[in-house]
Amino acid sequence: MLKSSRIREWLLRKLRLIFLRTLEYLEIKIENGTRFARDKKWWIVGVVVWAAAAWFFVRPLPDCQCLRVIMFDIGQGDGFAVIMPDNKKMIVDFGPSDLIVSSWQRYFDPADKNINEAIFSHPDLDHLSGSLPLLRQYVFERVLGSWPKHEIAEVLVLEKYWSDFDFKPMQAVGPRNIFLGPDIFLELLWPQKNVRGFLTKNTNNESMVFRLRYKNSAILFTGDAEKLTEEMLLKQKVDLKSEVLKVSHHGSKTGTSLEFLKAVSPALALISVGANNKYGHPHLEVIKRLAGQNIKTYRTDQLGDVILRSDGKTWSVEDKPLWQAWQEWLIR
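Above: the chain's sequence. Below: its structure in token form.
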């Protein structure tokens, strides 16, 4: 899907270029007083067609007075957008590349450069690499993340660039509830200590685990948390029950134990994963475990972007807008 995402971006650039060239040619015809009067109906038709095509390629989702969660198809990594009923926006992880920018721009007004909330689950490149391209174009009001001390050279370089943007994420420490808007809370469950100075070779178990609750519905985000974190939460008898589960670590067998699944008891599961990735994600054991619990699973490597919505009671998968389906048809 990484290749198809780049094709979408290329097509959009070409469409804009052709549209602008059409307008320039039309302007020249008018200035020269040539056959425009006789041919103007065809020029009008052409402009309308290109404007409609551009509208299909990128336009914001219509308001729904609901909570939306978009799982972006960005390859082997995590990247999610959350749209709240009051139209505030949150991003959860930034994927492995700058594809997060074009993914974000497919759904939001390009002129709106503000992102209200940002979450970094943990300092791994497949969750962070897209942060710098986003910082060049957008302003984050508040950033929360889990930042254990690590020895990942590429991330250390990335953190140095962040200072150019005065980018200073707050360390997540739970358990605590964070108010995001009317009837919306972020229930931070893990980590339960300040891990900023804590050196670890495995950042996965310091991933942010949080439940996003809207009225009586919830989705559980798990980052790349592994069985050790799951066991700690189960031992503490933390309320994990959620209708939707973001499966940890792209469906790796290092997490999503049967005991954890039973505690969460989701109806839907989301797996953000790259097609034909070298890790073999999602692992067959996890897929069988989800199926055994009658959990409907949605994967980016099979479906592309996935859009969920909640009315505060139930979650449903939203049909892709016509412009998104048209893009995918065009690529195929």
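The chain has two domains: 2-57, 67-319.
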